[in-house]
Specification:
This protein is an alpha+beta fold and 807 residues long. The protein is 30% helix and 27% strand. The chain has a six-stranded antiparallel sheet with strand order 16-17-27-26-22-23, covered by helices on one side. Strands 18, 19, 20, 21, 24 and 25 form a six-stranded mixed sheet that branches. A hairpin with a 5-residue loop joins strand 9 and strand 10 (222-231). The longest helix is centred in the middle third of the chain and has 38 residues, at 400-437. It starts with a helix and ends in a 9-residue tail after the last strand.
Length: 807
């Protein structure tokens, strides 16, 4: 305690003025302190009446003592100083044994007041039962204390003891370091909080608030320190509970993954609330379904351990491990109350043993378990699971307030688990729908060898409407499609399904890429118009549509706001195809443009959505460069597209993507020139015979003259005869004829007319109209497509055995 030098005098004998007077009030002796106090030397006072020191006094005054007075006189008086001023003093007159003389003690009133207040203050501190005061000497041994077990739960330090005798060595060292610092510097330490532990009861601890002040003597020399202790155990526990509730609200519920949410719950509780925690969920919850609406044990509920946390390191091997199923709980009144929301709280070892016996707990309890608390995870009246906390090293029993905190945390966590469950259910349904709508992952046609890959978004993100498609077209051509629907969830998946169906329909019309995207854009605009007013802006998509012709080795493609494809040439060269992108589907008002390029056989064409290339940087250009750098090393000529794509997707890691990932790889092939033959004839019906003969010769050259149950040469001649005759009769010339040998035999007849041929049933009296009906009967399929000038009617006929593979 810091005091001034004058205040120090009030607590020392050197600061008390003394005088010896006789029974007549004559001063016999005058102390040095009295001379300093009044500024009057002894020579001027001794032998004179003491009353002369009283201003205006004419007699001996109240400080004179009669010989009959045996009781000391105590009071206050005003004394005249040597300078002429006055000072108020408090005095005490002590008659000596024979009563002839009196010892007079006096000190300034303000000093006496300070002394009395200090004594009263120290007495009040030492009498407190909620505030501990300990005085330490310079050797930091206890000189005086009021600490008792009822005050702070710990042992009473005896006088002369060091802190190490009542606290652990680590705690004693920390506190004595503070005491020594204050003793040396004189700078007080105010309200330093810390936990202290008892060496007699391992695990037992108290929260203390420590304030330390230095003690000094009259000359300002340190004599020790005074420490004031306040037991803050309950206050700190209440603060910890509040902090735990806040942390739980902050950390739990940020993920829409059921397992992650359960693990967050376990991690929040350990070690802040206990030493071991586990979260067990109903197996129905893990797959997104609702748990059974039944109470009781051994039926309905099938719990599985989902998350664990241990303060001491790995989860004990003898306890139920994550992923393992819990045995059914026996039915009991306790279990039913717990399932309705009543928490199980065994605060100490004795109640823990009784609880385990009463519940017939089927699982092994942790070793050295001291207390347990278990709360159900309830949402909408359904038991989703439970969270259990064990105390093994922490010796504090669970209190009622702990149960309240656990109930609140479990309630919050149950809502988060239920939200994650609902997301799991919708995500599962959307993924299943999405995957059902997508085509087979791999295809093998004369034009391409393809492999498609789709990875749905996860980690709390809804899946989008990404899709890919491989559509076989007439004349051995193939259409490659990749698209990305705006928005997420089931609505996006449904839109994707409608767009994929539309693309198939439009592709069957054999429209060029520009015209197909134009029709598709019109469809999306109609879909947006049909959507609710608040959702019209969310209907849209990007799309890339490409058609590859293996006869010409040429690829034509158009983009509706989609990312450009990459092509890896057989020599390893990689380039991003420069496509003039039109607007995304649904915008309207702007044209699309077709880009054409020649592809060497064995080239790998990569079509993808932005989920494949965007990472945390969200930089599309950087992502495209990364993909372009990775592909050449993977596209070995001997590697199948599915192997290439599998390796590429594995390089993305196991972390659930934030957006859908779609990849379509196509290795191009080319029909050898010797497997095609073409002729052109003027509009002369006499030349139909020449067309039939040319067809027969070509089939013979290919070794197909004896193919099929209907003799391929004969049926093909009939088809050629009918188509060429109709072309010359109704469209004029020139008329083109082309045969393509692939996995089927393709016959194409081209004329300059844009008139749509129609299949109709001829009446018995009609002289014509049976040609297309005959063609339809002799072929596996037929159709018509339009070009810049005229149209082409094509047919396909099966070949047995399969034709040689194209290169």
């Amino acid at each position: 305690m810091n005091v001034s030098s004058n205040q120090c005098e009030a607590f020392s004998f050197g600061g008390i003025a003394t005088a010896l007077i006789d029974r007549e009030g004559i001063v016999l002796r005058w102390s040095h302190a009295a001379a300093e106090l009044l500024g009057i030397p002894a020579a001027e006072v001794c032998g004179r009446p003491i009353a002369r020191l009283l201003p205006g006094a004419r007699d001996r005054g109240p400080i004179a003592m009669s010989s009959e007075a045996r009781t000391p006189t105590v009071g206050k008086a005003v004394l005249r100083l040597g300078s002429g001023r006055s000072v108020e003093v408090g005095f005490r007159a002590l008659p000596l044994d024979d009563g002839s003389e009196v010892l007079l003690l006096a000190a300034p009133t303000r000093h006496i007041t300070d002394w009395e207040q200090g004594r009263a203050f120290l007495s009040a501190l030492l009498s407190q039962d909620r505030l501990g005061v300990t005085l330490y000497g310079r050797d930091l041994r206890v000189a005086r204390t009021n600490l008792c077990p009822d005050m702070w739960g710990g042992p009473t330090p005896p006088v002369g003891a060091r802190l190490g005798q009542v606290l652990t060595a680590e705690d004693a060292k920390a506190i004595e370091a503070v005491l020594y610092q204050v003793l040396e510097t004189g700078v007080p330490m105010i309200s330093r909080e810390q936990w202290v532990h008892s060496p007699q009861e391992p695990g037992r601890r108290w929260g203390l608030s420590l304030s330390v002040f230095r003690l000094e003597d009259a000359w300002g020399r340190p004599t020790g320190v005074a420490a004031v202790f306040a037991d803050t155990t309950e206050r700190r526990r209440a603060r910890q509970r509040a902090e735990l509730g806040h942390e739980a609200a902050t950390r739990i519920g940020h993920s829409l993954d059921v397992d992650r949410t359960a693990q967050d719950l376990a991690d929040v509780l350990v070690p802040a609330f206990g030493d071991l925690a586990h979260v067990d969920l109903d197996e129905a919850v893990l797959v997104g379904d609702e748990p059974p609406k039944v109470l009781g044990g051994r039926r309905g509920h099938h719990m599985r351990r989902v998350a664990v946390a241990s303060a001491a390191g790995p989860w004990p091997a003898y306890l139920l491990q994550p992923g393992e199923s819990m045995p059914p709980m026996p039915d009991s009144a306790d279990l039913r109350r717990w399932q309705k929301g009543e928490i199980v709280l065994a605060p100490d070892r004795a109640s823990l043993i009784a609880t385990l016996e009463r519940w017939d707990y089927p699982l092994t309890a942790p070793e050295r378990a001291r207390a347990v608390a278990s709360a159900p995870l309830l949402a909408r009246g359904l038991v989703l699971g439970e969270v259990t906390i064990w105390r093994t090293e922490q010796t504090e029993p669970f209190e009622r307030e702990d149960g309240d905190v656990l109930t609140e945390i479990a309630s919050r966590a149950a809502l988060s688990v239920d939200n994650a469950r609902r997301y799991t259910r919708e995500h599962r349904a959307a993924v299943a729908l999405q995957q059902r709508l997508l085509p087979r992952a791999a295809s093998d046609t004369p034009a391409t060898q393809t492999a498609g890959f789709y990875r749905p978004a996860g980690g709390g993100a809804e899946i989008g409407g990404d899709w890919y498609d491989v559509i076989p077209l007439p004349s051995l051509r193939v259409a490659l499609v990749v698209g990305d629907v705006l928005g997420h969830g089931l609505a996006a998946t449904a839109t994707m399904g409608r767009l994929r169906t539309a693309v198939h329909t439009l592709a069957d019309l054999e429209l060029d890429p520009t015209e197909l995207l134009t029709h598709l854009d019109d469809l999306v605009q109609r879909l947006a118009a049909e959507a609710p007013p608040g959702q019209r802006d969310t209907v849209g998509a990007t799309c890339l549509y490409a058609v590859y012709d293996p006869v010409a080795g040429r690829c034509s493609l158009a983009s509706a706001g989609h990312l450009p494809p990459l092509v890896v040439r057989p020599d390893g060269g990689t380039e991003s195809i420069s496509v003039s992108p039109g607007p995304p589907l649904g915008v309207g008002g702007m044209p699309f443009e077709t880009t054409s390029l020649d592809l060497t056989p064995g080239s790998v064409l990569a079509l993808y959505t932005d989920g494949l290339i965007t990472r945390d940087d969200h930089d599309l250009d950087t992502g495209i460069r990364r993909l372009a750098d990775a592909l050449p090393a993977l596209c070995d000529p001997d590697e199948k597209p599915e192997d290439i794509g599998r390796t590429l997707m594995a390089g993305l890691g196991d972390t659930a993507p934030r957006d859908d990932i779609t990849l379509l790889l196509a290795r191009t092939r080319m029909v050898p020139p010797e497997h095609t033959a073409s002729w052109e004839f003027p509009a002369d019906s006499a030349l139909v015979t020449d067309a039939r003969q040319a067809t027969a010769r070509q089939l013979a050259d290919w070794g197909l003259d004896d193919q099929g149950p209907n003799e391929l040469t004969f049926t093909t001649e009939l088809i050629v005869s009918e188509l060429v005759t109709n072309a010359m009769r109704y469209a004029g010339g020139p008329v083109g004829l082309r045969l393509i040998r692939g996995n089927v035999l393709v016959c194409e007849v081209t004329d300059p007319s844009n008139t749509q041929p129609r299949l109709r049933r001829a009446r018995t009296t009609d002289e014509g109209g049976r040609g297309l009906l005959l063609v339809a009967q002799l072929t596996t399929r037929w159709g018509c497509r339009y070009g810049p000038r005229g149209k082409t009617i094509w047919t396909e006929q099966a070949l047995t055995p399969p034709a040689p593979a194209v290169r």
